[in-house]
Design brief:
mainly alpha
C-alpha cells in the first residue's frame, strides 16, 4: 500500500483496497480453501506419522511465541500474495504481455526468497544438495508456478 500511496496517491490506494476485499466466486470455494488446506496439512502429518516420521510433535515453544508465529504465518503469505499478484503483476502487464509479466514476476519472487533458502540451509532446515543446483531448481519451479 505504501508503494501505491507514494507512486499514485490516496485515490489509487482506495481503489486497490476495494479490489482486494471484493469477494468473487462462490462462497464454497472460500470454505474449501479455509478448511481444505488445514485438512490436507493434517492428513499429510498423519501420513508421515504412519510412515514412521515424527510429524506430529507437541510444541516446544511457549504459548506467546506460538501465537506470534501463527499470526505471522497467517498474515505474511496472504499479504505477500496481494502484493505480488494483486499489485506487481497488473503493473507489469501494463507494459508486457501476460506471459512475459508472469515470467518476470516469477524470477523476482524467487530472487526475493533466495535469502530464506540460504539461511534455511545454514541452520540445517533448508533444501538438500549443492546450492547452485537448489537455486536453479527453485528459480525454474517458481517461474513455472507464476505462469499458472
Amino acid at each position: 500500500m505504501t508503494v501505491i500511496l507514494m507512486g499514485h496517491g490516496w485515490r489509487r490506494v482506495r481503489a486497490y483496497a476495494r479490489r482486494i476485499v471484493k469477494v468473487k466466486g462462490h462462497w464454497g470455494w472460500y470454505l474449501a480453501v479455509l478448511l481444505g488446506i488445514p485438512a490436507l496439512n493434517g492428513l499429510a502429518a498423519v501420513w508421515m506419522e504412519l510412515m514412521g516420521q515424527d510429524a506430529i510433535a507437541p510444541p516446544t515453544l511457549s504459548l506467546d511465541a506460538w501465537l506470534t508465529a501463527a499470526l505471522l504465518r497467517g498474515t505474511e503469505g496472504p499479504v505477500e500474495e496481494i502484493g505480488w499478484r494483486g499489485f506487481a503483476l497488473p503493473m507489469l502487464q501494463q507494459q508486457y504481455s501476460g506471459f512475459r509479466a508472469s515470467i518476470i514476476l516469477g524470477f523476482l519472487w524467487a530472487l526475493w526468497h533466495v535469502p530464506v533458502i540460504v539461511l534455511g540451509r545454514s541452520v540445517g532446515g533448508g533444501l538438500a544438495g549443492a546450492l547452485p543446483a537448489v537455486l536453479l531448481l527453485f528459480f525454474a519451479c517458481t517461474t513455472a508456478v507464476f505462469r499458472l
